Request: fold
Amino acid sequence: MYELFADSPWLFIATVFAVSLLVGSFLNVVIHRLPIMMEREWRAQCAEISSVPAIDLPEGRFDLMVPRSRCPSCGAMITALQNVPVVSYLVLGGKCASCKAPISKRYPIIESLTALLTAVVAWRFGFGWEAAAAIALTWSLIAISVIDMDKQLIPDSISMPLLWLGLALSLFHPMEGSERLFIEPKSSIIGALAGYLSLWSIYHLFRLLTGKEGMGYGDFKLLAALGAWLGWQMLPLIIMLSAVVGAIVGLSMILFARHDRNVPIPFGPYLAAAGWIALLFGPQLVGGYLDYMG
Reply:
């Protein structure tokens, strides 16, 4: 199998694409259920501290595996055949098989996006451990981005393991054939520290000057994780890309979509997108910029 994928890069990319469609379906579950799981846990902890039972807290097990997925409109259980990524959505015409209620287009979009971005990573790195690590990072960034867009929340249960995994991977430096990952431990540790402290400093300076909170602590942890994976050298590029894209999107939403400027816009998706770009093309972008300035 190793020789087959190593000698046939397009077979490896196609396999990764197909598997990632299934992963995208699972990411839809994570994106929907993880915030609910966190809310249930918070409410249970508050009830324990206050000694007042949370009488409205739903009973029964609720996690990423249980209960089975159901239609939010009629409660009908979704069968395995109705849950095939993208294909089922097209066959069902974007409607529930039981009640014909419309199914959100976001489900096939996330499945397709996960497969596409993962295939790009497989193309960029080729078959090997570096590709496996980059794919895991890509999946995590997708989940973080959509959850933050929905809830303005970056779960520690994703960002913190991502941070520690980035630091752990640096222990395997140097790894034969690696280009962007498995960086030296010093760069990884400094990257994690600098990533967290840079946004932490901006946050407190902004709050001191305006009396408002410009971002959340989840953003600090996400940039720390990206610093641990990619090294401190990539942090200026990530911050610059995320700030520019965030400013353009934010101004566009205010000017054209009548977005209330007092309603915060999540910054996590821009950090995630910038980190993913730096993962794939960071050295080339930095080198091209330095050549242009020189």
About this structure: The CA atoms of residues 198 and 220 lie 8 Å apart. The chain has a mean pLDDT of 88.
